[in-house]
Amino acid sequence: MMAKNKEPRPPSYAVSVVGLSGTEKDKGNCGVGKSCLCNRFVRSKADEYYPEHTSVLSTIDFGGRVVNNDHFLYWGDVAQSGEDGIECRIHVIEQTEFIDDQTFLPHRSTNLQLYIKRAAASKLQSAEKLMYICTDQLGLEQDFEQKQMPEGKLNIDGFLLCIDVSQGCNRKFDDQLKFVNNLYIQLSKSKKPIIIAATKCDECVDHYLREVQAFASNKKNLVVVETSARFNVNVETCFTALVQMMDKTRGKPKIIPYLDAYKTQRQLVVTATDKFEKLVQTVRDYHATWKTVSNKLKNHPDYEEYINLEGTKKAKNTFSKHIEQLKQEHIRKRKEEYINALPRALNTLLSNLDEIELLSWSEALKVMEKRPDFQSCFVVLEKTPWDETDHIDKVNDRRIPFDLLSTLEAEKVYQNHVQHLISEKRRVEMKEKFKKTLEKIQFISPGQPWEEVICFVVEDEAFKYITDGDSKEVYARHQREIVEKAKEEFQEMLFEHSELFYDLDLNATPSTDKMSEIHAVLSEEPRYKALQKLAPDRESLLLKHIGFVYHPTKETCLSGQNCMDIKVEELLASSLLQQDHGRSNLYHDSANIDKINLFILGKDGLAQELANEIRTQSTDDEYALDGKIYELDLRPVDAKSPYLLTQLWTSAFKPHGCFCVFNSIESLTFIGECIAKIRAEASQIRRDRYMANLSFTLILANQRDSVSKNLPILRHQGQQLANKLQCPFVDVPAGTYPRKFNEAQIKQALRGVLEAVKHNFDVVSPVPTIKDLSEADLRIVMCAMCGDPFSVDLILSPFLDSHSCSAAQAGQNNSLMLDKIIGEKRRRIQITILSYHSSIGVRKDELVHGYILVYSAKRKASMGMLRAFLSEVQDTIPVQLVAVTDSQADFFENEAIKELMTEGEHIATEITAKFTALYSLSQYHRQTEVFTLFFSDVLEKKSMIESSYMSDSTRESTHTSEDVFPRSPRGGSLDYNYPDSEDDAEGPPPYSPIGDDVRLLPAPSDRSKYRLDLEGNEYPVHSTPINCHDHERNHKVPPPIKPKPLVPRTNVKKLDPNLLKTIEAGIGKNPRKQPSRVPAAPPEDTEQSDNYAEPIDTIYKHKGFADDIYAVPEDSQNRIIKVRNSIVINTQGEEENGFSDRVSKSHGERRPSKYKYKSKTLFSKAKSYYRRTHSDASDDEAFTTSKGKRKGRHRGSEEDPLLSPVETWKGGIDNPAITSDQELDEKKMKKKPHKVKEDKKPKKKTKTFNPPIRRNWESNYFGMPLQDLVTPEKPIPLFVEKCVQFIEDTGLCTEGLYRVSGNKTDQDNIQKQFDQDHNISLESMGVTVNAVAGALKAFFADLPDPLVPYSLHQELLETSKIMDKTERLHELKEIVKKFHPVNYDVFRYIITHLNRVSQQYKTNYMTADNLSICFWPTLMRPDFENREFLSTTKIHQSVIETFIQQCQFFFYNGEIVEAPNPVACQPPPSNPVQMVEPMVPLQLPPPLQPQLIQSQLPADPLGII
Q1: CA–CA separation, 911 vs 917, rounded Å?
Q2: Do the Cβ atoms of 922 and 1206 come closer than 8 Å?
Q3: How far is CA 1287 from the centre of its chain?
Q4: End-to-end CA separation in angstroms for the chain
């Protein structure tokens, strides 16, 4: 039963694969393909196919179980089913011959037969023989599949004869065919089926294949199958055909030619490849690995099929190529991003076309690397190239790899960037050119549409170049600018017309009539008409302004953050807090000081010598002084040390005082400069407010090794500098001493330091009193205009820089307190700083003792606001007007500033107020003495002001405005006294802005009659004379001089008459002669002994007043009060200029009025608005009460700081104009000043005008006669040549050349360096063109005689009046020929240079006219003492202009240039714009003539005098 049910076993066949085998000699370098054929058939998968199989084995491998000492291999079996579905199993045997790798001979085996006989054997036996897989299996059988040959023996059922039809490897095909023929004979003897397999048909040689086919055709039933094991073509077919021959029951297979079978196989591979590649395309991350992907795809049929056909290696290669493509695509995108980002980086780092236009790409890279923003745009990688680093994965890092810039693409981007910059520059230039074109079109008004303008610019070159969008954008920008400017100007106009608005009734809205009046007045203004097309905006601005007038607050201020109230609060909050903090720290426990920190400043070792001397007199650094022991900490520092400022003030060492020692003029000069630097540094950085007030002591060293005659000079100069610095001067004691420093000197200096420390402590901690310190004796309001062009610090510095300044009560953020001695007692003054709009409520509702009204001389609106505010102030309240500008020169160089300053002084004259000017470039305003006289005036009128305030019946009982002051008005002055101390008797010399040697204060011997206030001012113990009229005292005494008692005036030095006549020459430019606005009186003679000479531009005096000196009232009796330009006999019963003494005494009895009724200027301004809309009423109606009063005229304003020095110890009206001749003074006192002199015609005098000497060093070149500086070979001075060459090489196109001033220090340095070395290069000095130009002008200014001789001035003047141009030019040419040959050569050289400068006027804006204005005073040396000369200044200037214009004609025989004739025979026309009443222009003192010092005094090498 079981035998019947048992399934039949499938038939099994054994096939022996045979072919050419043997040594290399027999078969060549390679076999015929038997092993590959067997491999492909048994294991057809690509991964299991090994193309290389060796027959050269070692003895070990040959004896292994795989080979098993046999010359055949068992390949295993293959189960195969035929077309009829019958399965069979085919065992494959390969007959080969293994070669010993040592002997290269066949291995010895159990069968010693030859291959052809052994291969034909039908029975094979080998016990435990393992299946062969590959060569690597040999020796490592355990690592591979182990399958034994069945039962250790096989019966061969058929033979597969392999014939290699390829080219072969060192083998002849005929030999192979001969071997095959022999082998076939042996095989045929076995009677087994045989099939020929033509192997390696993929490399087939056609005639070899034909020979094989011919060989087979000669045999019976011998079939040839064309195979290729590499491509798996017909491999299975040849075995299948052999099985069919063994089993006749199977169908006969179809033998397919190789090419057809290959095509079929390749099509199968291609299809599988396509499917696999599509499968791989699904992977999008280039970071994916083959291992991960193959695990995911291993069960996919497409993946399996491809692996079977092509193998894992190819599949992996395909995958790797795909991944590489993904990576390269990612890199390409990143590179594209970098390249696209590169232009932005270049715009950031290389945006300057001028810098890179000529640079190569490599040079540009070096420039980029140095840029600070380089790291934000680029990244420098440690490894390169960038695409092979992990930087490609840093997607969030947008920085460009720097090595990418070395590519051509990056260089191309750079080139495009440069071209873009060039084109963009051209585009911007054209846009700007088009913008300028629009600016030149005058009819373009704010709000005008583009369509109305385009027709006027169609033909413009720039308009054609730029795009429509650009043109519209430029026009829109132009419109925004002109609209914004028009609105600003409109707002400024509203402020200028402040009188229109500040007379509004603030309790009701403006009436229709008032609005009509406002529009009627404003409609006459061009600035009103400019907004015609923007009427709604204009109306909005007007209503906004009116709204601000009704509700003026910091928040609604039209100046925004520039509101004066905001700025004042910020400054006071920071300054006063810092000041109080500094005080408490520095002077804590200063009263009980036992250690003194001293800073010793000297030059050339003097500081160390003094320190050594002090230590010699000390014991262990302890010094005995006045019975007390002090520990001394000395820090000597050389004045030349570059670390001077850093060593002076450190956290560990804060000096109580500084000893400044000198023994020569040079060292004294150096000391003065150092002290100025120290104070300037401390003032600027404000790191410690008391640093600026550090106590300095000047000490003169004994002159042991020098001539004794130098000592008086040094003593004089040292005392003078000490006066300037307001510090003690320690002189050399009388007698002979062997050492440089005397013990008495040191003790005197130490006492001064201790007194200074105690003084500072007393200021910080004043003596307490029972008085409530919150109450102020005087309440002063300082008003300033919001938006004025000056810093708040400028107008507050006179208070903040004072020792006696402190914070006001809590809650008063805009106030400060001053403790000052005024009169005989210490007063407490509250200063409240407000904007004008905030001051209106104070003016109406609060008790104010005085107003300080500040305005900018650069801004009409500021003056307009001042007028509007002042008009409504009660005339009983004293007023101080303050004009603010940059420098004194502004008055002469700017007509608008001059007009506003003149108007301010004119108003001050009319209302009997005080007037002064503050300069942002000056240091004099740092002192509170600017306002001392004003405070005194306020104090005198205090009772009257408070009485007027209390008795004003019109004052409302309820105040709605914000209280600025606490209301505690007192009927009288609650003065409080401080105990007298030694400090009250002595102190630093008082500061005098007039000069140190003008005796305006008592001599030291009379000092006991005076006291010294905290600012260093002396004041008399007795009260002020009662009969001195306020307006006289206010206006006739120069600042800050106070009345003094009669004291012997011995050695009083007087101002030289040449002083004030020449001051104007040094201001910079000669002001034009002011046209007369009042009837002129003939000028009166002034004797040489008069204290004040008549300045050239002074106003004409009224008849009946003699020229005299300034003086002060001598007592309260009937004494003569001498005032400049007038003499008034002051008696109790007489009147002065229409005001009686009784009127002065009755101020408190009359009802207060307003200043607008006291000032014709203020009233006229207000009436002028009313007249425009109502009637032509006369201004004089309001002045019936003041008909007897004289018209305002110029007087020496006692507040005028034009007399003040620019620095703390330099400049100002000083020693040079001072004489010390007692006899002259006595002669002056013998004169009868009350007599009026007869009018005399001034006599003409021919004098040589000596220019001011600006140099403070000796020179053997500058200031020498021109003849000494030239030779026949070199007719031009070397310095002139160097300067001109430098200017023409580097700065011919500099804007404002010869007009803009260069740095004074640089100018001096140029000349000093040239003095030392004539071959010096100006280029190497690094100075500016303006500095060189200034040095050149200074060269001509220092010549003893002007380049254009005085002797020819009159001829030039007369010739310039010739009307015919040609005749005039020829006459001028003849005059030039009369020049000295040296002067002629230099004049021709400099005029030629100026002509070249004028040719560049489009860029430097210096026409021949402008150049002549700058140069004619230098070349012709104007004589300001000659009035006739001044009347022809314009003509002289035009002469130089003609020389510049006609340079070629005068000097090079050229043609006459057709240019307009600038020479005018008529005087310049007067200014058509006048105020209601012609105002007398503000007269400012001219600069100094330092050379006019008294002959017996030595020259001042310090530059102090």
Answers
A1: 17
A2: yes
A3: 27
A4: 152
Q: What sign results for the dihedral spanned by CA atoms 986, 988, 993, 998?
A: positive
Query: Is cis: bond before 385, omega within 30 of 0?
Result: yes
Identify the pLDDT of residue 646.
65
Provide the β-strand partners of residue 817: 806, 830
Separation of alpha carbons 759 and 590, rounded Å:
10
Write the CB contacts of 333 (distance below 8 Å, at least 6 apart in sequence).
none
How far, in Å, CA of 1089 to CA of 1055, rounded? 9
Output the pLDDT for position 1188. Answer: 39
Give the integer Cα–Cα distance in Å for 131 and 144. Answer: 10
* Whole-Å CA distances, 1495 to 356, 466, 1050, 1498: 64, 73, 19, 7
Residue with tokens 């009260």: 1023
CB 310 within 8 A of CB 273: yes
Neighbouring C-beta atoms of residue 444, cutoff 10 Å: 17
- Strand ranges, E, within 1099-1212: 1120-1123, 1126-1129, 1135-1136, 1139-1140
Question: Comparing C-alpha atoms, which of 628, 720, 711, 622 is closest to residue 663?
Answer: 711
Are 1384 and 1352 a contacting pair, CB within 8 Å? no
How many residues in total does the chain contain? 1505
Pairing of strands 815-822, 825-835: antiparallel
Angle among Cα 881, 887, 893 to the nearest 5 degrees reads: 105
Does residue 793 contact residue 564 with C-beta atoms inside 8 Å? no
Q: What is the DSSP string of 1128-1177?
A: EE--TT-EETTEEHHHHHTTTTSPP-BGGGT-HHHHHHHHHHHHHHS---
Asked whether the bond before 1040 is cis by omega within 30 degrees of 0, the reply is yes
Cβ-contact 162, 37 below 8 angstroms: yes
Per-residue tokens: 780: 């002063």
How confident is the model at residue 1477, as a pLDDT? 37
pLDDT digits (tens, 9 = 90+) for 1024-1081: 333 333 433 333 333 443 343 434 433 433 334 343 343 334 333 344 334 433 333 3
Q: Are 99 and 61 in contact (CB under 8 A)?
A: no
> Do 1110 and 1088 contact (CB within 8 A), yes or no?
no
Looking at residue 796, its pLDDT comes to: 86
DSSP secondary structure of 896-962: HHHHHHHHHHHHHHHTT-EEEEEETT-SGGGSGGGGHHHHHHHHHTHHHHHHHHHH-TTS-SS--SP
- Greatest Cα-to-Cα distance within the chain, rounded to the nearest angstrom: 178
Collect the ranges in the chain with pLDDT lower than 70: 1-8, 82-86, 503-508, 577-592, 642-652, 682-693, 704-709, 726, 735-737, 759-774, 803, 811, 824, 922-928, 952-1151, 1165-1256, 1423-1431, 1459-1505
Among residues 524, 523, 527, the alpha carbon closest in space to that of 486 is found at: 527
The DSSP letter of residue 148 is B
Residue 819 β-bridge partners: 828
How far apart, in whole angstroms, are the C-alpha atoms of residue 687 and residue 680? 12
Rounded to an integer, what distance in angstroms lies between the CA atom of residue 895 and that of residue 581?
Answer: 45
Q: 945 is written with which tokens?
A: 């002001």
- Distance set, CA 658 to CA 601, 625, 633, 764, 836 (Å): 7, 18, 12, 21, 44
CA–CA gap between residue 1311 and residue 1174 (Å, rounded): 66
Q: Is the dihedral of CA 144, 147, 153, 157 positive or negative?
A: negative
The answer to whether the pTM exceeds 0.70 is no
Rounded distance, CA 416 to CA 1439, Å? Answer: 56
Hey, what amino acid is at 1294? Answer: T
Residues 129 and 150: their CA atoms lie apart, in Å, by 9
| Both structure tokens of 700 | 């003169």
Q: Which two tokens stand for residue 1012?
A: 């010294």
CA distance readout (Å), 1209 to 250, 373, 674, 1064, 1202: 134, 48, 12, 21, 15
CB 999 within 8 Å of CB 1049: yes
Residue 648 to residue 694: CA distance in whole angstroms:
11
